[in-house]
Design brief:
Shape: globular
Largest sheet: 2 strands, antiparallel
Number of strands: 2
Strand content: under 5%
CATH class: Mainly Alpha
Radius of gyration: 22 Å
CATH topology: ABC transporter involved in vitamin B12 uptake, BtuC
Distance between the termini: 22 Å
Length: 419
């Protein structure tokens, strides 16, 4: 592979996200060589998660054949959606090298707000949801002010917020401690029994594949126009057609039973939307820059405080919205909402999925992959009728392994000059 000289590549082309060293030669063989080169340089991507998920599924399926049944997988999609939305917010805050320990409390508080305003006060459900999400935005903005203006570490401010917001949740719920949401209402149906039409699901998967191909083709064309090597048509077809066919087959498998829940569809929509923001917008580039090197980003003219504020607010908003979806799933708002292992699972999902604790590296798909790993462990142990203590220990072990892999990969990138 050759490196373009200034005479053959304009300066702007050198800033292309696709590293010249990682452009494929041609065909499937070139793709394999590119993949090996990435792994050797420490750019593991989602490989450890996918390998781990394959091992988890193989073990649980061999022990209990019900594990990979369509019925059990559909239940996993329901359960993964609510925590997955909260994990998306954790991805945002980890990308800038900070943390939010109060996402569980924010989600529980949001569910309580919906219950009180909708059921007790008689507000329209849409306004109640909007109030809950707006409250999350205010909480995120408060964290941002504490961080930007007073230099309070996010670990401390969000830990204090965890306790304060939990107290507020208990206060507004009152003595009963629980509010049942109306069965048969659109919100509860969304959380428990609404599924996408099969034709719609198949069409969405096909459309996603077409968009992937068109985007890849245009990117390759732009690179060639700039004098850089571009992705071959054969590799592009393989890279887009293969996942499209696999996803269509998965959808077909789900529709042998009830199908794909709308709740999971909302989660996937948020994943795709956040991925677009992080990879295709100026804001996303600034988030990567601030997370990678705050001082360098400041000297480059980036409004670092605004980036931190946006990350805190987006994290809290997604936590609040996840709490609303959780209340729909449980058909109630209670004192237990947002407590227990919600914080653990949300943070673990982001990290296990591949988001770096050191900032600057990660993607929206980290939350998707990570929460599938966690729910797979939880579902497998439940089917085996094992205690929840094992689930905590295994999830903790997987989280520790993910952090170790991230640290080793980071050291490898530094040694290869790709920190």
């Amino acid at each position: 592979m050759t490196t373009p000289t200034p005479s053959t590549a304009p300066a702007g082309a050198l800033l292309d996200r696709s590293d010249e060293r990682y452009q494929v030669d041609s065909g499937i063989g070139g793709a394999i060589r590119t993949f090996i080169d990435r792994v050797r340089s420490g750019d593991l991507g989602s490989l450890p998660v996918i390998v781990g998920l394959a091992i988890i599924w193989t073990v649980f399926q061999s022990i209990n054949p019900i594990f990979l049944s369509s019925t059990n997988l559909i239940n996993m999609l329901f359960d993964a959606s609510t925590i997955g939305v909260i994990a998306l917010g954790i991805v945002c805050i980890l990308m800038v090298g900070e943390i939010d320990l109060s996402v569980g409390s924010v989600s529980g508080f949001a569910s309580a707000i919906v219950g009180v305003l909708w059921v007790n006060q008689g507000w329209p459900v849409g306004l109640a949801i909007a109030a809950a999400v707006a409250t999350g935005a205010v909480i995120g903005l408060l964290y941002a002010q504490l961080f930007n203006r007073f230099g309070m570490p996010s670990f401390v401010s969000t830990l204090a917020g965890l306790l304060a917001i939990l107290g507020a949740q208990l206060y507004i719920l009152g003595g009963t401690g629980s509010i049942n949401l109306p069965y048969g209402s659109p919100l509860v149906n969304l959380g428990q029994s609404l599924f996408m039409p099969a034709a719609f699901a198949y069409s969405v998967v096909l459309l996603a594949g077409i968009v992937m191909f068109v985007t890849g083709y245009r990117t390759a064309a732009r690179r060639r126009a700039a004098g850089l090597s571009g992705e071959s048509l054969g590799h592009l077809l393989f890279r887009t057609v293969t996942p499209t066919v696999v996803l269509e087959l998965i959808a077909l498998y789900f529709y042998q039973d009830r199908g794909i829940p709308w709740l999971f569809g909302i989660f996937i929509g948020l994943v795709v939307g956040l991925n677009y923001l992080l990879t295709r917008t100026q804001w996303g580039r600034m988030v990567h820059a601030v997370g990678g090197n705050r001082e360098a980003a400041r000297r480059a003219g980036i409004n670092v405080r605004a980036v931190y504020s946006s990350a805190f607010v987006l994290c809290a908003v997604l936590a609040a919205f996840g709490g609303v979806l959780a209340s729909a799933r449980l058909a109630s708002a209670s004192q237990q909402a947002g407590t227990g292992d919600v914080n653990l699972n949300a943070i673990a999902a982001a990290v296990i999925g591949g988001t770096s604790l050191f900032g600057g590296r990660g993607s929206a798909y980290s939350a998707l992959l990570g929460i599938i790993v966690i729910q797979s462990i939880s579902s497998g142990l439940t089917l085996l009728d094992l205690s929840s203590s094992l689930r905590y220990m295994i999830t903790g072990g997987v989280l520790a392994i993910a952090v170790i892999v991230d640290s080793l990969a980071r050291q490898s990138r530094v040694s290869h000059g790709r920190a």
